Sequence to fold (244 residues):
Amino acid sequence: MLIIGFVTWLLSVRLKDVSIVDSVWSLLFLAGLITYIFISGNTGALAMVSLLLVALWALRLSIYLTYRNWGEPEDRRYREMRDKHGQRFVTRSLYTIFSLQAVLAWFISLPLFAIAQSESGIGILALVGMVIVIFGVIFESLADLQLAGFMAREANHGKVMDKGLWQYSRHPNYFGEFCVWWGFYVIALAAGGWWTILSPILMSVLLLRVSGVTLLEKDIKSRRPGYEEYVNRTSAFVPLPPRS
Fold:
């Protein structure tokens, strides 16, 4: 994971665009699980189905983010960091962005490590976890597709997306991501990996309080007229019926 982060950092220096880290984030987990399975030599059904699910999630998210960011300027978050740190940003980005993401991905991937070490079969609990993962991937994918269609229409520029899944949650894509990682934890639980509970908790904190909901909504009300009204009637995370 650190090697992938370092190579991506070198590419970001050449491109002068740190946003490419978003496309690589999910691939860190796929690389991690492949490594865990390779080291353990485990080719059991539970490990192989989990590998398929991780690949489905990781490749879908990476392709979507690459397509969304293609030809776009560097993400506003990273531009602010670049302006703040000046020439030091190049070296700082290596450890504050790329290395940090690799370490976070390693810790969050611990349920995948537990799965790769287990010889357990696919029982009821593992099936429940797989259903939760698949639900999360579908939910997240549909939310991203709906938002991409909305943003592609010039008439919607500056407007608030409040249709489809977005009328029930202000961040349905993050809720889908939340389900994916709790689903993998349930699979790990079935494999005896109860001790990996801190991994989905950390992912939940990141989605809700760090790089997800809180960060995105920090100044969005000033950039999008009507967003405050949207906040007043729409659940922040868990999909719920709109408030009147």
